[in-house]
Each structure stands twice: as C-alpha cells, then as structure tokens.
Amino acid sequence: xxxxxxxxxxxxxxxxxxxxxLGTDELAAIGFIVPIASVITxxxxxxxxxxxxxxxxxxxxxxxxxxxxxxxxxxYLTTVVAAVSTGILIWQMDTIFVSLGAQSETxxxxxxxxxxxxxxxxLSIYSMVCASTFRALGxxxxxxxxxxxxxLTNIILxxxxxxxxxxxPELGMQGAALATVLAVVLSVIxxxxxxxxxxxxxxxxVPAWKDFKDNFNQLIQxxxxxxxxxxxxxxxxxxxxxxxxxxxxxxxxxxxxxxxxEQVSLMIVFALSSTLPMFIGQNLGANQLVRIHDAIKLSFRxxxxxxxxxxxxxxxxxxxxxxxFSSEASVQNxxxxxxWIVPLSYGLSGVxxxxxxxxxxxxxxxxxxxxxxxxxFIFYLPLCYFGSHWFGLKGLFVGVALGNCCTYVYxxxxxxxxxxxLKIKS
Length: 426
Description:
This protein is mainly α. It has 15 helices and no strands.
C-alpha cells in the first residue's frame, strides 16, 4: 500500500508542478479544485470502507460466498452514489467555487479544468471502491496495481497534453484534466477485470431480495456515517481555503502546494489507514481482541515518531521546496510559513486518521462523524478564524496545527471508551 500511496500522492505534486509553469492563476485554480475533488474521492473512501469492513469480517469467518454477494451489492450502491454526486457537482459548479472565494480570473481556469475532469468524478469513486475491496480480501498487491497504473498513466500524459509535446495538442489546464480522466478510466477497467474475472467476486446472478435488502441495510449503516466523516475532511479543507483566499491569489496558490505536500508527508499514515481496518476486521471475525489492541497501540506510536522526523526534514528544506513550485516571492513565503508550522502536528493528525478508520470497522461509524464535526466546528474554524484575524496568515496556520492537537485528544478519548466497551462485551 505504501508503493500505491507514494504513486497517488506523487500524482498531486506532479500535477501542481506542471501546472505551476502555466502561471499563478492556474496554480491557484488547482488550490480551489483540490478540496472539491477530495469531496468526490471521499465518497469512494466511505463506500469502500463500508464494503471492505464488512467483507473483512466475512473473510475472517471464512464466508467467501457471502463476501462475494456483499461486494456485488456494494457496487450497486456505488453506482447510485456516483451518479447523484456527479450530477450535483455539474448543477452547482459555479456556485460552489464562487462561494469558496474564487475570483473571475481564477474561475476561468477552474471551469476549463472541471468541464473535462467531471467525466472522471464517478469513475474515481469506482476506482477507490475497487482498491478498498482488494485490501479487504488481503490482496494489497492488486490494490496497489490499480493505484500505480492510474498514477503512471497520469504522470506520462500530463506534460504531453498540457504543453503539447510531440504530436499531442497543447491543451493547458484542459490537458491536465484529460490526463486524469484517461488515467482513471484505465484504472477502473483494470480493477473490474481483476475483481470480476481473476478473483470472481463480482456476481452476474440477480440477488434474492432478502439477501440484497440485508446487505444494503448493513452497507448503509456504515456507508452513510463513513461518507459523512470522509466528506467533512475536504469540507474542512474548503473552509480553510476560503479563509486563505482573503489574503489573495498568491496565498491560495501557496496553500494549495502546502496541502499537496501534506498528503505526501502523511502517505505512510494513509497506507496504515488502508490496511489497519482490514486487520481489525479479520481479527474481529476471528475474535482476537488482544491482537487488535496491540496493533492499534503500535501503529499510533510509530506514526507519532515518524511524523516528527518528517517535520524536521520539511523544516530544514522548506525554502528549497518552495522554490520548486513558484518563482513568486509571496507564493514561496506562504509555502515556507506553512511548512514551518503545520507539519509539527502531523503526528497527532495521523493518529486521528487511524482512529477514524478504526471506528468504522469497530462498529462505531457515527463516532468518526462526531470526531470530524468537532474538528471542523469546535476546533478548526474558531482557531483558524481568530488566528487569521489577530495574526494574519501565520496565525491561520497556527490555528490548523492547534486544531489537529485538540482533535487528537478528543478522538483518543472516544477510542479508549470504544475499546473498553468491546472488552466488556467479550
């Protein structure tokens, strides 16, 4: 999974790197697009979490035919969610980006990108669900193949379509979006082939109504809270982007690069968040509660130490990193300020990510929603607003770091209560 996530996170940075050559307005446009694209991706993560957490328990209990039926029914649900979410995005596209603070000159580039990228939106949900399903089956290699294929395709096509190299037309922002669309299409084809043909976990037979209804109810009970919990994360990013936009286009461009670097910095956290729930689910199915507790404790300690080490690297190399993405002094200053403050809290933020995914498979998906709601409304927004009001952009970034710290304390309290409750039931 680490190989896959290195590829996925590199994709965002490579996109930003090539688009930065088009200009500051284009780079700022990507800064506005990232949180919206992440909302769509979060739907795939939520559905994938529902399908994979239930599937992993069935695999742990050796109920393979039931797992195949549940996976198939899960893809029916995915089709509905993909269609509805994409339709809403098409319908309200202008309203969404204007409300985020996009100015007219930036909005032109946003629409140029989004009118092509919109075709990738529903397919990206399928891609995420396919990858999650393979992890539940214990086949992380297949999950990685899907992600790596998508990323390599995008990285190859980006410069060709953006700058018009060789026989390819110069399409600018539209070329970056088209590269993503083609890459996602290829990943979905690969995912469906491996899941349906090689693993035979996608069934052609029409399900009995009772079985479908039971699976649908189980999926909905986890999917809706997981969707909400995952959607709140990019909504939080969008809210922070709105606050950053008050400091100008250059600030948004710098902040957009900072958030892409954050995704790369947390890639090992995301690798663990992709596999830890499946480990928990399979051990729940086998009633091995001690292994669950030990795995959670070890993961948390590892992430805190690792992210502290990454913070030191970012602190020492901030200026050099900023120079790679922009020649504008104001954009570079924003990137450097971000890297000197926010990454200090990455370790605690990473633990919160792991707690959120653990809650879903532990049968407490609503608690993951509560954690993210508290993070957004109780910690992030007040701290970032007052920080920016009193101390400018630097104060806003301090608010982000403090918000991560406060959320960590709240999430850890809820997790401890959940583990104690499970022990009592056992």
